[in-house]
Amino acid sequence: MNSHDSSRKSTQITTVILAGGLGTRLSEETITKPKPMVEIGGRPILWHIMRHYATYGHSRFLLALGFKAEYIKAFFCSYKTANADFFVNLKSGETRFLSASADDADWDVGLIDTGAKTQTGGRVKRLQELVGRDAFFMTYGDGVSNVDLNELLSFHRAHGKLATLTAVRPAARFGDLTLAGNLVTSFREKNQISEGWVNGGFFVLEPGVFDYIAGDDTTFEREPMERLAADGQLVAYKHDGFWQPMDTIREVRLLNEMWERGDAPWTMPKR
Q1: On the chain, which terminus has fewer CB atoms closer than 10 Å, C or N?
Q2: pTM
């Protein structure tokens, strides 16, 4: 490991990924599997997101599961055996791997069922004890980006607020932000009319954010973020690079086409 890699490892923090929603807008795929398991280039989009974080040295994950949680659990439980050659003793159950797989990932993955009907804020709240007292990343299990995660973390620490989101300028509107410099002065989810920066996810959050979440029925993008903005505790890291959600079958095809032609920016994070 070179000195740059060692530095990145020393700043590793936990990454929470929301992976429990119904994915109703992508029903063509989610009738049989949870949305984070929809494949891009033969791998679940969840894997792509986790690989992005791991590339920056952040390989401790808490996956907030819900809808079809068993599907995601089965994927990770069989991950090593699915990607390697091995012997298994049928009497003892002992497994002996022939060699390390090229797909071995040194990731520590917590698979936490946060309830089938729990809202996004509730899923985060249920992980409070596992997150502990340190800042943590949080993102959604259905979108990819080439945002520089360590620059994002440094930006968050420099501003000293409870929450930092990544602001992007996509064609579609997901959460309308009003900014004064880097300070978020108001937040409105899914405004389809206004122009400008929108919520692209890829958050850094302090444990104090848990105080803004009432319980399972709380949608993180509504009252908690609105209150954080009103309290001057929400800042935006502006990302002008690649960002793409996966909400429709058209976007699944788009991401797969990018992968197939070797033009997948999320696989080569900006340095």
Answers
A1: C
A2: 0.84
